[in-house]
Amino acid sequence: MISTIKAAIRYLRRDEQLAVHVVLGLVAGYILLSVFVWLLPASVIDIEFSEELQEHQSPLLDWLMKAISWFGSNFGAIASIVLATLAFYLSGARREAGFVLATALSLPVIAGAKLILNRQRPTADLVRVVYEAQFQSFPSGHVTFYTVFFGFIAYLMYRMDTWPIGVRLTVGILSLSLVFTVPFSRVYLGVHWGTDVVAGFFLGLILLIGLLTWYAHRR
Description:
Elements (H helix, E strand, L loop, with lengths): L1 H38 L4 H10 L5 H11 L4 H17 L3 H9 L3 H12 L23 H19 L5 H24 L5 H24 L2
């Protein structure tokens, strides 16, 4: 019994050390991207990546990409957080409901991060802009929010073994699909550069790891 406990403690410490190393790597990557963007606000790499994604266009694809991005709009983000919080609370998972609500803390972090570089959005003379977006471009707030919110929902679906497997699979797959498609959506719509969405993913992972660590220690 004692040896089992010691093994579990060693595993947890190793897991925490890995998380620290991953976070440090993400922070380093975010800083390097910030420096790159500061030196080259509209790089050839960003422009060529946007051109590749926007090469194939159609009204249906425009609609699909807008639909994917909807959850990151002001109304969409608030509605998603409120509805998900209520769903967990009413199902009896009150602790999980509180942590889902805590994903809203990512919103002021995103707003603050955007002010640091104050990068402008892509312009119509460089890319196809499907619609005009507000606020600064770097990092992508949509990608950051999706990584934190939908990433945490996907994690909960993995952990909530008392829920029906069909619900867990459906919600989990949908959540991960949104996390991995929204970066392409933002670039396709012409509201972000490729470096914006990569930075948003890095920042989102940093915040998600912090949230998961908090969740694991608040039993």
